């Protein structure tokens, strides 16, 4: 087989994999129990093609989740490049809230497909690293409490997962995040939040 043909097949495989992931993302957004057969059919490929790229349901779900988590982690750096540290922190929490609500189906599929240990490892690693960068920037700026850890923040916003994504969750999520930010800020930082920092409509 010629080098050109190998490159063509590789490029086709990359496109097929990306198409399968996008189809699965849409499927799990609507139903956490979406079957691999239904995903393959919707993508217009045979089930064998799907299995070549993702041998198990868990492999497919984890690849989807890994990509989503990496996007959230990258968002921390992007926001720090574009905004003051406290605004970047608040805006990242807003994105996290939207992620938690709009990806509820994917998270449900993930929890049903795998063990808690692997879920925690895949989710917490990039997210805690991203939060660590946000916290460090705010410590340097003197806007957040110096004793905070990424796990503290994740525990503080865990209440978001109690909201029903099928209801009007945005006003309550906004109130939750405002309370969290006020609790995590230093006294002078808290005044800055109330005075018109990046409120970031959820």
Q: How many angstroms does the end-to-end distance come to?
A: 53 Å
CATH class of the largest domain: Mainly Alpha
Which series of helices and strands comes N to C? HHHHHHHHHH
Total separate domains:
2
The CATH architecture of the largest domain can be given as Orthogonal Bundle
Over all CA atoms, what is the radius of gyration? 20 Å
Q: What structural class should be given to the helix and strand makeup?
A: mainly alpha
Spatial shape: elongated
| Helical segment count | 10
Q: Largest beta sheet, briefly?
A: none
Average pLDDT rating: 81
Low-confidence stretches: 189-197
The CATH superfamily of the largest domain turns out to be Tetracycline Repressor, domain 2
CATH topology of the largest domain: Tetracycline Repressor, domain 2
Content of β-strand: under 5%
The amount of helix comes to: over 70%
Number of strands: 0
